């Protein structure tokens, strides 16, 4: 789905990529990752908010009142708090994805 997705990349001061994420056409955010050495410095939050704002811009450009205004993601349970701090809410049971416990989370952009 890379070709059909919107991507965000964070770089350090020397221009090296340190984190990434993507927004799929179905409004799911995925493939969020930040190098361990650069975590807790705001890169992940900046990537996430960039993708949320990309979704918001896409919604506004279509200007459809009945369009789904949510952005969603499958959060690894151990980083659920990170997404909560960015306005996402968990829904549904914990499930396994790639052998890791996840939870469905969403944020309404309306």
Secondary-structure topology with pairs:
Blueprint: E1 6-11, E2 17-23, E3 28-34, H1 43-62, E4 70-76, H2 80-85, E5 89-97, E6 100-108
Parallel strand pairs: 3-4
Antiparallel strand pairs: 1-2, 2-3, 4-6, 5-6
In short:
The chain is α+β, with helices and mostly antiparallel strands and 110 residues long.
Based on the coordinates given, report the CATH architecture.
3-Layer(aba) Sandwich
Q: What is the tally of helical segments?
A: 2
Content-based structural category? alpha+beta
Give the N-to-C terminal Cα separation.
26 Å
Question: Which parts are unreliable, with pLDDT below 50 for 5 consecutive residues or more?
Answer: none
Share of helical residues: 10-25%
Portion in strands: 35-45%
Sheet having the most strands: 6 strands, mixed
Please tally the β strands and state the result.
6
Describe this structure in words.
By secondary structure, this protein is α+β, with helices and mostly antiparallel strands. It has a single domain (6-108), classed as Gcn5-related N-acetyltransferase (GNAT) (Aminopeptidase, 3-Layer(aba) Sandwich), CATH 3.40.630. Helices cover 24% and strands 41% of the residues. It has two helices and six strands. It has helices at residues 43-62, 80-85, and strands at residues 6-11, 17-23, 28-34, 70-76, 89-97, 100-108. It has a six-stranded mixed β-sheet. A hairpin with a 2-residue loop joins strand 5 and strand 6. The model has no long low-confidence stretch (mean pLDDT 93).
Give keywords.
110 residues; alpha+beta; Aminopeptidase; six-stranded mixed β-sheet; 2 helices; globular
């Amino acid at each position: 789905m890379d070709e059909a997705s919107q991507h965000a990349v964070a770089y350090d001061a020397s221009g090296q990529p340190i984190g990434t994420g993507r927004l799929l056409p179905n409004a799911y955010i995925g493939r969020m990752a930040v190098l361990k050495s650069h975590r807790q410095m705001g890169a992940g939050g900046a990537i996430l908010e960039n993708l949320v704002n990309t979704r918001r811009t896409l919604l506004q450009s279509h200007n459809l009142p009945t369009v789904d205004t949510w952005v969603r993601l499958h959060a690894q349970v151990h980083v659920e708090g990170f997404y909560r701090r960015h306005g996402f809410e968990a829904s549904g049971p914990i499930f396994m994805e790639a052998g890791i416990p996840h939870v469905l989370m969403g944020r309404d952009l309306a």
